[in-house]
Design a protein that fits this description.
- By secondary structure, the chain is of the alpha+beta class.
- The protein contains nine helices and 14 strands.
- The strands form four sheets. The chain has a five-stranded antiparallel β-sheet with strand order 1-5-3-4-2. Strands 7-6-10-12-11 form a five-stranded mixed β-sheet.
- The chain is globular, with a radius of gyration of 22 Å.
- Mean pLDDT is 76; it is low at 1-18, 29-36, 92-102, 186-199 and 390-394.
């Protein structure tokens, strides 16, 4: 836990329109509390899902992965550049959220502060990547331009690693909540449109293809074994990716960004791609023992930046979604990401594709093959769509 967390102070909301906040994400603050994930198109739909659930009080929607997470009342807010969060119903008496929009003058102040911060960090850190980002921040701010969040966050993260709070205050480079809101209001945009011959991941790639990760100290042995098996599969099949083991504690990994492998929550889930944590900390991949090696591999590929295969915009050529058989509240899991990469052949047998009965409420299929899909499956010599059988990918 870094000292920046003590600077966060959230105030009352003023209106229904101001109850959602960008740049903040909820995290479960007790074992056993959902999040319940789904794919939805926007934050308003995510809020509607929350309002329809008797177990949801607050939600977070990630604009990069289009994933919606629902939380009970035991949830805490943390900074996250790609998130929009709020209560199930906008209510003026809700005191957990606040929204302000930065003026031009506010932006100028933040630009000046970030420029000074980058100058200090450049002289204090030994991390060549942070130095490189600090140089980019210096160049942007020298031109009076607010740098993008993916450049700013690693530099801001480094402050608590090389300075005490007192030293940062003396240098006048303490980044507070209002600064974060100005930074987060500079939109990076969503996924890039798919282009012929060019492929994009759904999430941010890991720097230099190095993926730091660690385990919760109390995690089960089975979860460690399944995770290491999944890591070894990727190491063998994609040798260009390097996994970097780190020490972990109850709060995360010793470095950031990193994947914090836990088994504290219900279900198997992970963020998509590398997540920048402005206050340090680690993104969570939750894989309790019930998650097989194949399922852990699926979640690890999410963490590396891959979305679901059936979220592609061309999926209806191959499969039909049987909405009537899907569990209530899980419809968002079957959404389409309009800008997803469709330049490669659609893969019905991908480990990132749902199986035919995913999220079924009655045991009946939720996904059915079209004639074209059946033809492709036959050509592959496969018998079903989707799979978590690691022997098929090894």
């Amino acid at each position: 836990m870094v000292w920046w967390l003590g600077l966060m102070a959230l105030v009352d909301t003023a209106s229904a329109e101001s109850c959602l906040v960008q740049g903040m994400a909820y995290q479960s603050s007790r074992v056993g509390t959902l999040p319940n994930g789904a794919w939805v198109s926007d934050a308003s739909t995510c809020q509607s899902n929350c309002a329809a659930s008797p177990f949801c009080d607050y939600f977070t929607w990630y604009n990069d992965s289009k994933s919606c997470w629902l939380f009970g009342d035991q949830a805490t807010l943390k900074a996250h550049g790609n998130a929009t969060s709020g209560p199930k119903i906008c209510d003026p008496v809700d005191t957990k959220m606040s929204v302000t929009t930065g003026s031009e003058e506010d932006e100028k102040k933040v630009v000046a502060k970030l420029g000074k911060l980058a100058q200090v960090i450049k002289t204090k850190t030994n991390d060549p990547k942070v130095i490189e980002d600090a140089d980019k921040v210096i160049r942007s701010t020298s031109a009076g331009i607010l740098p993008d969040r993916d450049i700013v966050y690693p530099v801001v993260n480094e402050v608590s690693a090389v300075l005490t709070l007192e030293e940062a205050e003396k240098e006048d480079i303490v980044v507070v909540e209002e600064d974060l809101k100005v930074i987060n209001n500079k939109e990076l945009g969503g996924l890039e449109p798919a282009k012929p011959g060019v492929s994009y991941g759904a999430g941010a790639p890991w720097r230099d293809a190095v993926v730091p990760y660690c385990f919760l100290p109390s995690i089960s042995h089975a979860s460690i074994q399944n995770t290491q098996a999944a890591v070894n599969i990727i190491r063998r099949l994609v040798p260009g990716i390097t996994f970097k083991p780190l020490r972990g504690n109850d709060g995360g990994c010793e470095e950031s960004p990193a994947i914090f492998v836990t088994d504290r929550e219900q279900g198997c889930f992970a963020d998509i791609g590398m997540q920048f944590q402005v206050f340090g900390g680690s993104q969570v991949m939750n894989v309790p023992p019930i998650c097989s090696v194949g399922v852990v591999l699926h979640e690890l590929l999410h963490a590396l930046g891959m979305a679901h295969e059936q979220a592609r915009p061309d999926r209806d050529k191959y499969i039909t979604v049987l909405w009537q058989n899907i569990k209530p509240g899980m419809e968002g899991q079957f959404g389409v990401m309009g800008n997803a990469d469709a330049s490669r052949p659609y893969d019905l047998t991908s480990i990132m594709h749902y199986g035919p009965t995913a999220f079924t409420k009655n045991g009946l299929p939720t996904l059915a093959l079209t004639a074209r899909g059946q033809q492709q499956l036959n050509a592959l010599g496969a018998y079903t769509i989707g799979q978590r059988d690691v022997s098929l990918v090894e």
